[in-house]
């Protein structure tokens, strides 16, 4: 499968090529007899026929011909238009294989691009970009840069491309319209979700007063809209402190917690709400504290013990793991900034370790190792590592050692198979290393005190 970046790059190449061809055909029609600008003059006249002929470097060609570029070998090819007449309309083609003499069937002509098709490509590209999940903000930035460049190309052709804010305003209007149906609203939310990945767009969503409209969709009677609203909000606030604060101020925490706790909600809705909750809480200790004060941790424990399926359970464990890990990294940070001091003050007010111990999480985490799913096990093993300082004794009491030894046997075999098939850094080998590390931790405690 092409990566999104590849798609972007390809689209750009095509675009630049089309621009070149437009320029080229202008040169061909206005300067056909007097081409001083071409590096290498070639006086031999080009006599077009119904067959493709290669245009020699520097050779002038009459206007109105079919012109195609040979992408693999370089060079241009030209022939008369199909009906034998020349035409003022330039027909642009990309020929993947110019050595093929036979003329492609009309349906077969790939790479003939009109402005409309380019717009379509850009739209499609945005769609595809949206589908790429788990992007780092650096990835996103570099992609947006490419998008900006493409936008400049459009500007060069005097085509107005809507700004991101204009697009978001249009999408919000769709959400507000009483006449929009579920399908239209869903598409609007999906498009918004794509736009708000960019940090500035997410902040603009609040500035243009659109956040409340998305938040309202969390109460929509249609489950797919509730799910997508949680997804959109999660993407808007993820790793975006300004948006996190604004979302909190707009009452996101209570709205999202209510859906997570509601056993009437379909699992996919609750899953996206957990994603959204996690995006709100990460590196935002004030919201974590408020979750605690609102009984949110107790709610999460109750949800965990409902029939919610493994994915939700693992997501809750992951959330705890993330909260514990971010505290540890904040504590280990060297610099003594005001920001760090403020964060530590708030972390102190939330007795996370006590909660984990008293709410039965030590046992729940050991029990979660029962799964056969490798990804889930990986997550649980990571959680054992990070939560070890809190649960060390309880992990052992609840049979953690037996559980990890059993898993280790399994990964030992799988890892050996991997290594014998020439894959020394395979997934099972990594898992085997991770289990071994956890066993070492359970046996001997942390290697050095300062690792706490
Ligand atoms: C959704 O409904 C609940 C209860 O019915 C209400 O408290 C909440 O404010 C509503 N949320 C929004 C964003 O309208």
TrEMBL record:
Keyword check for Glycoprotein: yes
Signal sequence bounds: 1-32
GO biological process, one term: protein transport
Stretches the record annotates as Disordered: 88-113
GO cellular component: endoplasmic reticulum lumen
Family matches, as InterPro entries: ARM-like (IPR011989), ARM-type_fold (IPR016024), Hsp70_NEF-Inhibitors (IPR050693), Sil1_fungi (IPR031884)
Protein's cellular compartments: Endoplasmic reticulum lumen
Keywords: Endoplasmic reticulum, Glycoprotein, Protein transport, Signal, Translocation, Transport
Domain of life the protein comes from: Eukaryota
MF (Gene Ontology): adenyl-nucleotide exchange factor activity
Function (record text): Required for protein translocation and folding in the endoplasmic reticulum (ER). Functions as a nucleotide exchange factor for the ER lumenal chaperone HSPA5.
Family label: Belongs to the SIL1 family.
Subunit structure: Interacts with KAR2.
Name by which UniProt lists this protein: Nucleotide exchange factor SIL1
């Amino acid at each position: 499968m092409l990566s999104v970046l590849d798609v972007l790059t390809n689209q750009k190449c095509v675009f630049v090529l089309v621009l070149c061809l437009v320029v080229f055909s202008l040169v061909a029609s206005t300067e056909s007899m007097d081409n001083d600008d071409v590096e290498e003059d070639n006086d031999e006249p080009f006599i077009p026929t119904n067959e493709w002929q290669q245009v020699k470097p520097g050779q002038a060609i009459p206007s109105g011909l079919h012109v195609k570029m040979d992408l693999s070998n370089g060079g241009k090819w030209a022939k008369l238009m199909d009906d034998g007449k020349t035409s003022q309309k330039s027909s642009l083609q990309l020929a993947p294989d110019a050595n093929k003499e036979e003329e492609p069937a009309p349906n077969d002509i790939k790479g003939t691009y009109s402005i409309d098709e380019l717009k379509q490509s850009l739209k499609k590209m945005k769609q595809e970009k949206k589908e790429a999940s788990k992007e780092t903000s650096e990835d996103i930035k570099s992609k947006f840069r490419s998008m900006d460049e493409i936008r400049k190309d459009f500007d060069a052709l005097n085509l107005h491309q809507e700004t991101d804010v204009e697009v978001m305003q249009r999408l919000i209007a769709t959400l507000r319209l009483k006449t929009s149906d579920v399908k239209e609203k869903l598409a609007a939310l999906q498009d918004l979700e794509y736009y708000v990945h960019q940090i500035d767009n997410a902040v603009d969503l609040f500035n243009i007063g659109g956040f409340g409209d998305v938040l309202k969709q969390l109460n929509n009677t249609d489950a797919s809209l509730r799910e997508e609203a949680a997804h959109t909000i999660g993407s808007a606030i993820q790793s975006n402190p300004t948006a996190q604060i604004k979302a909190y101020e707009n009452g996101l925490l209570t709205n999202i917690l209510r859906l997570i706790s509601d056993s009437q909600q379909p699992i996919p809705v609750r899953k996206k709400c957990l994603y959204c909750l996690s995006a709100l809480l990460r590196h935002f200790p004030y919201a974590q504290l408020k979750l605690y004060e609102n009984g949110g941790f107790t709610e999460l424990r109750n949800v965990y013990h409902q029939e919610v399926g493994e994915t939700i359970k693992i997501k809750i464990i992951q959330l705890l793991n993330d909260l514990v890990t971010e505290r540890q990294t904040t504590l280990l940070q060297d610099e003594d900034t005001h920001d760090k001091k403020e964060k530590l003050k708030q972390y102190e007010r939330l007795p996370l370790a006590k909660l984990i111990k008293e709410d039965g999480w030590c046992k729940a985490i050991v029990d979660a190792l029962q799964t056969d799913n490798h990804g889930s096990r990986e997550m649980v093993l990571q959680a054992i590592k990070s939560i070890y300082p809190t649960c060390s004794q309880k992990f052992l009491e609840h049979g953690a050692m037996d559980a990890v030894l059993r898993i280790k046997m399994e990964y030992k075999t799988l890892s050996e198979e991997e290594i014998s098939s020439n894959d020394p850094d395979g997934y099972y080998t990594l898992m085997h290393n991770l289990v071994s590390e956890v066993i070492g931790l359970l046996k001997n405690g942390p290697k050095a005190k300062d690792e706490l």
